[in-house]
Design goal:
There is one protein chain. The chain is α+β, with helices and mostly antiparallel strands. Helices cover 21% and strands 39% of the residues. The chain has four helices and eleven strands, in the order αβαβββββαβαββββ. The chain has an eleven-stranded mixed sheet with strand order 4-3-8-9-10-7-1-6-5-2-11. Strand 5 and strand 6 form a beta hairpin. The chain starts with a helix and ends in a 5-residue tail after the last strand. The mean pLDDT is 95.
Length: 170
Amino acid sequence: MIDLTAFLTSPFKQVALVVEDLDSSVRAWHERLGIGPWTAWRLGPHVLQDMTYHGSAVEFEFRHALAWQGEMQFELVQPLSGPSIFADHLREHGPGLHHVGKYVEDHPAAVAAVLADGFTPVQSAHGFGATGDGAFAYFAPPGLSGLIVELIEAPKVRIEPEFRYPSAAD
């Protein structure tokens, strides 16, 4: 029997979409849907460590922005370079819904649990926190075609963001 406790005890908290232009998307989501404020970062080889894509070591770079509305976090992701599941989605489907995510207490245990349950790893990295902590791993669950699940270890302190929208000056 596979113990999925490390995975199942955390609720889904994030819905993520892939976008072509992060700046205009953040503005549109704020102005048209009232979601924000947004905080955005650029992540890639200058920050991330042990990047993988479909089981191979790679380098990728993307920009992403996060905003909370109630208990739900929204993420917008713009791929920039290298092979990534974000670039794949944009090329194959265009902008739109990409994955759901959950913050987990014990990232290594949650990853081990979903791997033991037959989830397919599709992309991962760690080190996006100010002290090198923080991790993310994406999986395709068995029997749920078209769904990607992200397991997130939140960093204790984030690196300095690329921008906030609206800014204090807006």
